[in-house]
Write a structure and sequence with these properties.
There is one protein chain. This protein has 169 residues and is mainly alpha-helical. It has 5 helices and no strands. Helix 3 runs antiparallel to helix 4.
Length: 169
Amino acid sequence: MQYQPTMQYQPTLGQVNPSPSQQSPGSPASIRIDPDQAMRGDQGASKLLGQLNRAQWVDWKNRFAPYIDELARVAQDNNAPGTAAANASNAMGIAYDANQQGLAMQRQGFGINLTPQQQAAEQRRTSVERSASMVSAGNQARIAAQDRQQSILAGGMGLSNIPDRVMNQ
């Protein structure tokens, strides 16, 4: 049995292949650039270089411009620090509630009952701790969101430094 290749080599130099949803006939992204054009006529190389530059620009706009736009939106969102603070505060409150529920189940499993005075003292203590933790978590999240925005605006946070979770908020 002899091996027969099913695909032939296709030169793709200078060819831009955008996603099918973005491709439309006649658009700069669907134009094939012929590298042999450099040898045709007096201005062949200049025309080829111009086509390559346009193709690179279209490619950059399709690939990176949406991320730059999203970074600008994140950096200029005045509600982001408040939203981050509210989310962190709520998460901390939920964590405390789950902890208290687990503690109550553990006591019940051991058959421990607190006196009304002990229950009141524990409720005061956990209420103060819960409130302090919620405020602290909110403040830390607000500071982190503002720092992220300032880093984006200052240029110290490029595309490679942005975690995916940040971009998908």
